[in-house]
Design a protein that fits this description.
By secondary structure, this protein is mainly alpha-helical. It is built from 25 helices and four strands.
Length: 650
């Protein structure tokens, strides 16, 4: 769970009005060039938006923190560095902010909270928000403390407590999640953002992709024992030996923190669960599908926008109004970008013993980021689905520079986070575009917010790692512990697969999973089929709603996301985007996005309160509802003779 900027958007309202009432209105250096005042007048909506953009720059997590946690916790090494990567927002504003077609669905949640229209009868938005916020705040005490089993309500396992098959099918956290549901907003919105902000066609595409992977391909591959699937759990992000035991990664690392080939040959090859391997294949397919989809469906628009850079073009009302403000010059972005690239290259050279990455790796990562920002940004701006570059960055540097796990992680951060940061910038610019905020003020708020956020995240991460015993160690932590770090586990596993051992020995000509590379070709072909179908049947408008990058990239978060995250998200998305939108359009238009913000904010405030009051004091309950989901056999192998602790031997 991460705290979104909506929490800050809500919290700042009383603080803003209080400061406007309390702070002096005195004008300093009056009549001089440096004249200013700390209180320019009543707290207004533009100040509110600007503070929200400032908070949004630091919402979520800082991706580079995963490097620190992976090296310190899993590799048991020390690492000390700080990296700030900025993206390419200035270059792509023309393509991803100004066009009306790039509408950024997630922004509508925040826009709806800024506006205070009174409907014809019924509750105002503020009244509805306060009711929903109070309910969300009060309710989270149940899944967050009193009844954590609500996080994944996997009732199939309870009916068949000794059946491995039933646990595999019914577990929402370690199985296929059939019948499982999360009665917890943090479960629902943890990895795919709010389902209430997702347009129905995008939710439907995600549902198709999820069903294709988890309920069609994965079960067939498992029960046909493809890639020795039955030797490993049906759903796992773990690293295994050929006998189904956890792989001892420390044995294949030499004293210089490099790959030890002789030790690897003694230890044997590394294996993945079939689900994990197939999911990497869908990551490959999503990458090529994104490029082909944007070329086929958005290529003409991009070309027209490129030509319009040198001539006057027709602008929508938002763009026309925003032109009244001083724009952020392109050279501001370029100077910031070049300064960060130079600082990163210097850090990689000066701290090469720790970071392992060469200077040319930084430039290659930046080239990948700028190439993919536009196609990934188009998908995000129209469907609210964020497609990552993490796998392709790992793949490329793993081939070019194998045996160096930290170099692989750094390359992924420089390639992926700079693109993601650019898209966050662009999303905030679109929010400011809707709310008519001066671009230069937005730029300053984003830069300062990002710097402060990075420092706070880094300090908090070090504090948690030093104060919480066995943090991220699943073997030693209680089953219901909130400190299992699913995202960090996947980050670490990826560093072993792509960085330490290298893709050539996993997915290349020396690897067991080389056939997975065919997914690259499948992903490139899939959007072409949709495009041809649309041309052949122009009257079938539903064909145009098929988005192959979203379908193929639907399970990019799986793992660390689990079946119950997706199932719950899809159900709520269907209830909002289809049922409420179609049959209760008036209610949906007034309250849908407000409800999304209220649920996020109520959850965030109660989660912080529970941790400060009970978590830090180690006050816990011990009863049936406080345990895990109750599916202990879901991770058991089903092949004959495989011995795993806690599992029956077949």
């Amino acid at each position: 769970m991460s705290i979104t900027s909506i929490s800050a958007q809500i919290a700042v309202v009383p603080l803003g009005h209080l400061m406007a009432a309390m702070i002096t209105g005195r004008v300093f250096f009056e009549g001089k060039k440096g004249e200013f005042t700390l209180n320019p007048g009543p707290f207004n909506v533009k100040e509110h938006v600007l503070i929200t953009i400032f908070a949004n720059s630091g919402a979520g997590t800082v991706y580079a923190i995963h490097i620190v946690s992976a090296v310190k916790i899993f590799y048991h090494k020390n690492l000390s560095f700080f990296v700030l990567g900025f993206g390419w927002a200035g270059v792509f504003r023309r393509y991803l902010v100004e066009p009306a077609a790039m509408w950024w669905p997630q922004n509508l949640v925040q826009v709806s909270l800024f506006r205070k229209r009174r409907p014809n009868g019924g509750l105002t938005r503020n009244q509805f928000f306060l009711i929903a916020f109070t309910c969300s705040f009060a309710y989270y005490v149940f899944p967050g403390y009193l009844f954590p089993r609500l996080t994944s309500f996997s009732w199939v396992c309870w009916i068949f407590p000794t059946s491995i098959l039933a646990h595999q099918l019914g577990s929402g956290l370690r199985g296929l999640g059939i019948g499982a549901f999360g009665f917890d907003w943090s479960t629902i919105s943890a990895y795919l953002d709010s389902p209430l902000a997702s347009p129905w066609f995008a939710t439907a595409n995600v549902a198709v992709g999820f069903a294709l992977v988890l309920y069609a391909i994965n079960p067939v591959a498992y029960w046909l024992n493809i890639y020795k699937a039955k030797t490993f759990p049906i759903f796992s992000d773990g690293l295994f030996t050929s006998t189904g035991q956890s792989y001892n990664v420390s044995t294949i690392i030499d004293s210089q923190f490099h790959f030890d080939l002789e030790a690897y040959e003694r230890e044997g090859p590394l294996y993945l669960s079939t689900m994990f391997a197939i999911n990497y294949g869908f990551n490959f397919a999503c990458l090529t599908a994104t490029i082909m989809h944007v070329l086929l469906f958005n290529g003409r628009q991009i070309w027209e926008l490129s030509k319009s850079a040198f001539q006057e073009k027709k602008m929508d009302v938002h763009t026309r109004l925003m032109r009244r403000y001083k724009q952020v010059p392109e050279w501001w972005f370029m100077c910031l970008l070049l300064a960060n690239i130079a600082a990163t290259m210097f850090a990689c050279q000066y701290y090469n013993d720790q970071l392992q990455l060469k200077w040319w790796g930084v430039l290659l990562a930046c080239a990948l980021a700028i190439f993919f920002t536009l196609p990934v940004g188009v998908i995000k701006a129209t469907t609210n689905q964020m497609l990552g570059l993490n796998v392709i960055t790992e793949y490329i540097i793993g081939y070019l520079y194998p045996g160096y796990p930290v170099a692989n992680m750094c390359f992924k951060v420089y390639g992926y986070i700079s693109m993601k940061q650019g898209i966050t910038f662009l999303e905030d610019f679109k929010l400011g575009h809707y709310m008519k905020i001066p671009p230069r003020a937005m730029f300053l708020a984003q830069v300062v917010g990002t710097v402060i956020s990075a420092l706070v995240h880094l300090g908090t991460a070090w504090w948690l790692m030093d104060t919480i015993p066995q943090i991220c160690d699943r073997a030693l932590l209680p089953a219901d512990s909130p400190w299992t770090c699913p995202g960090d586990h996947v980050f670490y596993d990826a560093s072993v697969i792509w960085g330490l051992i290298g893709p050539r020995r996993i997915f290349g000509n020396l690897g067991y999973y080389s056939a997975i590379n065919w997914f690259f070709l499948a992903g490139a072909i899939a959007p072409v089929l949709v495009w041809l179908a649309q041309k052949a049947f122009p009257d079938k408008h539903w064909i145009g709603l098929i988005n192959m990058p979203v379908i193929l990239g639907a399970t990019n978060n799986l793992p660390p996301a689990t079946a119950v995250n997706y199932i719950s998200w899809i159900v709520i998305g269907f209830a909002s985007g289809f049922i409420a939108y179609r049959y209760y359009r008036g209610w949906w238009s007034r309250h849908n996005y407000v409800l999304s913000g209220a649920l996020d904010a109520g959850l965030a405030f109660m989660a912080v309160l529970l941790y400060l009051c009970l978590g830090m004091e180690h006050v816990s309950l011990n009863w049936w509802g406080n345990g895990s989901e109750g599916c202990p056999l879901a991770s058991c192998p089903t092949d004959h003779g495989v011995v795993v602790n806690g599992c029956p031997v077949l």
